[in-house]
Amino acid sequence: MLGPFPNISRVLRLVGLAGLIPFPGMAKAEFAVCNQSFDVVNVAIGQFEEDAFVTRGWWTIGPNQCANVIRDELQARYIYVFAQDVFGKEILQGTKPLCLAPKRFVIRGETGCLLRGHLEALFLEVDTLETERWTLFLAPPP
Predict the structure, then answer these.
(1) Which of 18, 50, 79, 140 has the most CB atoms lying inside 10 A of its own CB?
(2) H or E stretch including 49?
(3) pLDDT by residue (tens digit) across 38-74?
């Protein structure tokens, strides 16, 4: 039993997290997403900035590729990630509803997504443990 998170084992199979391992060539990346699946994925992120949630997208990441989605030193402990394949199938199962759009976007605010002409999706919360750098690995399902 894994406590109040019944889907945590599935999430852990899909996502590998490593925030404390330095990777050569990634010194500039403060939050990177690496696609270890066999499919191209599209990624959006969200984080709390100053007084509101801000979501940004899209980064298209090919198989065995990484994208630096936040280039500045991490200010927020929690980063929210939404990922889907090129057919629109969600790769991650999250619980945090945030706004996104079909094309490249920056959206400020987390409520009233549909009323403001945006879409709403459930983002996965990633606890970066207050480190300055973090890499999220998207792995293929077993």
Answers:
(1) 79
(2) strand 41-49
(3) 999 999 999 999 899 999 999 999 999 999 999 988 8
Calculate Rg over the CA atoms of the chain: 15
For residue 61, how many C-alpha atoms fall within 13 Å in the half-sphere facing its CB? Answer: 28
Tokens of 46: 């969200």
Residue closest to 101 by CA, chosen among 125, 122, 117: 117
| Cα(67)–Cα(35) distance, integer angstroms | 9
Tens digits of per-residue pLDDT, 71-86?
988 888 999 999 999 8
Give the other-Cβ count within 10 Å of 121's Cβ: 21
Whether the CB-CB separation of 37 and 63 falls below 8 Å is answered with yes
Distances in Å between the Cα of 125 and the Cα atoms of 39, 48, 51, 64, 80 are 22, 12, 18, 23, 5
Q: How many helices, marked H, and strands, marked E, lie in the chain? A: 1, 10
Whole-angstrom distance, CA of residue 60 vs CA of residue 44 = 9
pLDDT at 72: 85
> Are the C-beta atoms of 82 and 92 separated by less than 8 Å?
yes
